[in-house]
């Protein structure tokens, strides 16, 4: 036993080194996106590449293998057992990729992102096409190295949502699509439409910032373990659980961008800030999957931030930050305008209802690409066709179409489904919370602490100690079920559009 | 030759790794002092420690030794020759310290800094004394490992001002002291004293910031390769030559803190921003010594920023940022108030004339400590005695006395002389510039570009390609000479105090 104790101690030191690299990388990225002067960017990318390689070397080192083998069936500590399992999985997956292919791929990624930026600017898919073709090829090859049981796409999905399969998505997404499409149709036919123009007019950035900070405080985002900055593309990033930073974007013509963006990123941040302290400096000290992470951001953004309960209670507070013409806007007009549903081209600007449809388009296309059912060169056309089919609008340029997202340029195939999964998770979790407490009542009585605590106790706390579907089943006592999301959206929009 | 080319290429890759660690460390430090949330501080110190150890391991690695041995007498490239020499010196010095002693010392440093913070707060030297004793012991032991010819203190001085010896300082400082003391005496006897109260009154931070930015632009500080932030203790830090950041502190009761502080740090930053691009990713891509660095910050702060030429020309500009009561302050009253001489306790608040006297006190004490001529426990008393002797004032607490500076708490013995050396270098360099051009005329005609260019061509450009005294002699064609500083101060204060 003494010997195991010493081995565990050495292993923990190795994990601490790994955490140190991760923090250094996260800081370098945060700074790159928020504070770095223009001329520092080039060198910075190299530094991030260097530190990432060091971290990758450590993950796949003989030393790592040595500890995994020694500790695998030789420890009783639950955290240690799961830590070893996590390290083993990373070790195995990463070792399956030949080192030179990994290096080529990393270089291809950064090159492709730069080319994608340019292609998007020029709205010229042809420029990006050869890079995307290579990225798809690499991902297919990696998927083959990693292995899969049923569908090659499963191997990629595993990187973002371990435990979820293509088969499950193919079961659940069409149902969701049908429900949302018919709801969208009814909304489009409604004669009782919100008037979004009431929200127009100059809303000073400083006031938006102050209100956003106020909401973050309500959510109990811990400012002594985080900070809020401004960026073009908002994000949340955890350096460690005591330093989880968020960013937002201000549009002085539309306060919703900053306010709901801040709540969204704040939801991600709460997850990371509330992970069990015992997991610090292990690879378990982070959100368990992209989908569960998204469930936390969407929970706060939609079920709290866009809820009737919230605005009924805090509209007066909001008005103390808002331009004076808001004094004339009746609550109902305001609430309905905030929640307008409107098919649009850009995913990240989509409303609550159409958002999952944007995701499904991407899922279907990337699954088909990886399965060799379609060709990269046909993407722009197929994208636009699906937009017409799912949302009834046809993009007029590739910039507004297939070139809008960075994910594929970064080689992230298998990531998109997490967004829709996260939304379904969130709705199902909300139902579970409602069985114990009444969410709307917690909101109207200002008991945000209880909401945060429930999420922390049931989700945040575990970090990667539980797999995504394990969390869903432990908390909700059933399998993933899209009905909760459909019911929520139906009820909400039936009210707003008098369906 | 082909073989050498390949070896050099591999060596350059190793140096690039070293630069990557340095940038990661610098960023972690910058963030620690400017943006980090409170709860992130503890973990951050560990990350910095980890990265520093990695960097130290690389500097003292067998791989490094291999390249040094292979390339030492086997390259014709001047940059490569000096790079190898720099690496060899670092390798040799660092290898002389046993690894376990180095680690103990690093831990002692951070512990001591924390204790010093507390001791200063409580104004309780006894708390800090045992740590300072250990730090002195380590420094003496390290100095013995490194070796020296004449005085043990030389071995420490070498870390900050290579080429300068205790003997030289003992030649030059007493002369300087005598000249400054007699000048100070005459000033104290003058009946024509400036009235600093004219500068009193609330000066909004934002206006100070805007004026500071304006001055930085005049100096041609490159904002696309840097940024200005706010901190309690201002500093300049180079992540690389394309990312050199500065910070400043705002005192709304005294604009001089921010304005002269910003110019000072801007002077440091100009040095790093204008280093020859060919040196990037070598250990030569930074200022050659603490003293030469300080010469650049003081050149701008004092010879430009506090000069009559500057304020005669830009006082009107300044008044567009200043509170309205400045409209009533005649130029002469303003200029003289800005340049008031007054013996005070705190080094970093000292005026141009008394500043070097503060340095000499520290030099004499630390030299005596390292030479076993005095004991740590006697420092507070000896400090106060010297303050009376040099400046005519006696600190009433250790906080205002021996505990005011962080240097000793960080184990930095041999650092202080750089401040006075830098000032003498600056004055001597100014004289050299004046032989080619007229500094005051460049200032009054707004030709700051020419000032910056002259400093860049003669100093910045070289990075560590030249040793400090080599720069002084190459540019001024004579050895270090304190007369220039004395003459400058005498002329300036004769005018201001009508001596």
Automatic annotation (TrEMBL), chains A, B:
It is an enzyme of class 3 (hydrolase). It catalyses: Release of a C-terminal amino acid with broad specificity, except for -Pro. SUPFAM superfamilies: Metalloproteases ('zincins'), catalytic domain (SSF55486). Gene3D superfamilies: 1.10.1370.30. Its EC number is 3.4.17.19. The keyword Membrane does not apply. Keywords: Carboxypeptidase, Hydrolase, Metal-binding, Metalloprotease, Protease. CDD domains: M32_Taq. GO terms for molecular function: carboxypeptidase activity. Pfam families: Peptidase_M32. Belongs to the peptidase M32 family. PANTHER family: CARBOXYPEPTIDASE 1, METAL-DEPENDENT CARBOXYPEPTIDASE. Broad specificity carboxypetidase that releases amino acids sequentially from the C-terminus, including neutral, aromatic, polar and basic residues. This is Metal-dependent carboxypeptidase. It comes from Virgibacillus tibetensis. The lineage of its organism: Bacteria, Bacillati, Bacillota, Bacilli, Bacillales.
């Amino acid at each position: 036993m003494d010997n195991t104790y010493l081995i565990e101690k050495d292993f923990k030191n190795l994990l601490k080194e790994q955490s140190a690299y991760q923090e250094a990388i996260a800081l370098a990225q945060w700074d790159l996106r928020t504070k770095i002067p223009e001329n520092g960017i080039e060198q910075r990318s190299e530094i991030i590449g260097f530190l990432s390689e060091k971290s990758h070397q450590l993950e796949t080192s003989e030393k790592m293998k040595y500890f995994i083998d020694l500790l695998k069936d030789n420890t009783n500590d639950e955290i240690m057992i799961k830590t070893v399992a996590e390290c083993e999985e990373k070790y195995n997956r990463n070792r399956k990729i030949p080192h030179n292919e990994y290096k080529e791929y990393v270089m291809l990624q950064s090159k492709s992102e730069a080319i994608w930026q340019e292609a998007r600017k020029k709205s010229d898919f042809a420029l990006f096409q050869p890079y995307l073709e290579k990225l798809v090829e690499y991902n297919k090859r990696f998927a083959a190295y990693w292995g899969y049981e049923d569908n090659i796409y499963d191997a990629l999905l595993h990187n973002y949502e371990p435990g979820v399969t293509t088969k499950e998505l193919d079961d659940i997404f069409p149902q969701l699509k049908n429900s949302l499409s018919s709801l969208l149709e009814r909304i489009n036919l409604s004669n009782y439409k919100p008037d979004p123009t009431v929200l127009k007019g100059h809303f000073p950035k400083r006031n938006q910032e102050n209100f956003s900070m106020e909401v973050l405080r309500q959510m109990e985002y811990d400012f002594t373990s985080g900070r809020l900055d401004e960026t073009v593309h908002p994000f949340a990033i955890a350096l460690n659980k005591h330093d989880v930073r968020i960013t937002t974007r201000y549009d002085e013509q539309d306060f919703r961008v900053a306010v709901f963006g801040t709540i969204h990123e704040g939801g991600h941040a709460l997850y990371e800030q509330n992970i069990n302290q015992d997991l610090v400096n292990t690879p378990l000290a982070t959100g368990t999957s992209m989908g569960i992470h998204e469930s936390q951001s969407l929970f706060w953004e939609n079920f709290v931030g866009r809820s009737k309960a919230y605005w009924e209670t805090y509209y007066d507070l909001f008005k103390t930050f808002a331009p004076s013409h808001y004094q004339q806007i009746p609550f109902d007009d305001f609430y309905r305008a905030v929640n307008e549903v409107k098919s649009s081209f850009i995913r990240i600007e989509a409303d609550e209802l159409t958002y999952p449809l944007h995701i499904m388009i991407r899922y279907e296309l990337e699954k088909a690409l990886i399965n060799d059912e379609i060709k990269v060169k046909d993407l722009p056309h197929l994208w636009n066709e699906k937009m017409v089919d799912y949302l009834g609008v046809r993009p007029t340029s590739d910039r507004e179409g297939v070139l809008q997202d960075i994910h594929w340029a970064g080689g992230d195939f298998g990531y998109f489904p997490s967004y829709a999964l996260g939304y379904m998770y969130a709705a199902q979790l909300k139902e579970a919370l409602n069985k114990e407490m009444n969410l709307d009542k917690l909101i109207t009585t200002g008991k945000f602490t209880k909401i945060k605590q429930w999420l922390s106790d049931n989700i945040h706390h575990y970090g990667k100690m539980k797999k995504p579907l394990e969390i869903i089943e432990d908390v909700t006592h059933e399998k993933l079920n899209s009905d909760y999301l459909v019911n929520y959206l139906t009820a909400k929009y039936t009210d707003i559009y008098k369906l």
